[in-house]
Amino acid sequence: MKRTGMRAALLALVVLLSSTACAGWGGGVGSGGANSINVLMVNNPQMIDLQRLTAEHFTKDTGITVNFTVLPENDVRDKISQEFSSQAGQYDVASLSNFEIPIYARSGWIAPLDGYIAADPAFDQNDILAPMTTSLSGADGKIYGEPFYGESSFLMYRKDVLQAAGITMPEHPTWHQVADIAARVDGAQPGMAGICLRGQPGWGQVFAPLTTVVNTFGGTWFTADWQAAVNAPEFRQATQFYVDLVRAHGEAGAPQAGFTECLNNLVQGNAAMWYDATSAAGSLEAADSPVRGKIGYAPAPVEKTASSGWLYAWAWAIQSASQKKDAAWKFISWASSKEYEQLVGKEVGWSDVPAGKRASTYENPDYLAQASAFAGPTKAAIESADPRNPGVQPRPAIGIQFVDIPEFPDLGTQVSQEVSSAIAGLVTVDQALERGQQLADDVAESYRSRAEGNS
């Protein structure tokens, strides 16, 4: 995940979610008049395209003016957290990820969308990839968000380098097979590492890929009854494997390498393989990429599970306090529609389509003409992701590369600092995870206490 900086935004939720009852449907009316809505969103490039296209198309067709507040990711998460927890009603729609949406749904901060979906068959909810719908639903089974774009994870590798070494990538590689390949191609070209893996501290940096490794090795952060399992044998084995692999055959500067650094390493020929987000493929296959056409795409490596790719989405949700929910839904229906993808393809370019959410995208010949190298593997990765059952045992909360509780950004970030230190050789994996176990048990204890109090 290219997502960092959620820690500050979600720390406030720890207290709020533990002490606040569900918010009601009241609240103030957003500014801008009866036929306008206020949208608070992240400043990602595809969101900026949306902002630019809205007046000429959505407003022209519906008469609804959209007032955008566009902020960097860290800032927008802080502002959304403050706005939605207070139910001030200033903003009708916000861009949220599949991490926040189940949490916000439990608190009553966002409105269920099922009624709007049922009354809007043209939106075609069945076309939304099923794991996306699952990850954007609440514990009550209702849908609370619609994806704007999404991603999973897969293994990217230099086909020419493996071929020159006489290596065929398995159709469904295991992590041990990947480690063997990394050893064989390490140094295949001057300055080329066998693999690039994130080592940068952050729950959304090193622990995005590492938690998927933990899952498929049979580990979990917490058992179904809220027992911390960070120092359990399976979690230890997965983390030791990851640390050993990146130390032996990974990139230079691994303890500070994140998504961007690994992307640059693969593009510049400094790595033969990379396990990370499916969204990276667009950059690898860009017209000016020196590795365009040289990259193969394999499913996320596994050990004990059938699949192990993560799942992430930027999505739209309606604030419960909004007095303009009908207009808000019209905007969401348009922004996440098939028609909007067609509009972006024609006016911006097919490589800029917000993909990763609809099955029909991967049947569109115009899109496939630009994304044929990675479209199939991306769709397969997303469809195989199971946010409710990502490992070998039941989980207490939804999530693949994260545990969907408000404490996780802080917990994951603190433990990630220990793991990054292990990658740097400053501590052992055992030492890192013993500290992590203490932190995880502190979180788990509060959930066990709540469960006992409700029994």
From TrEMBL:
It holds the Pfam family SBP_bac_1. The keyword Signal applies. Coiled coil: none annotated. InterPro entries: Bact_solute-bd_prot1, SBP. It comes from the Bacteria. Keywords: Signal. This is ABC transporter substrate-binding protein.
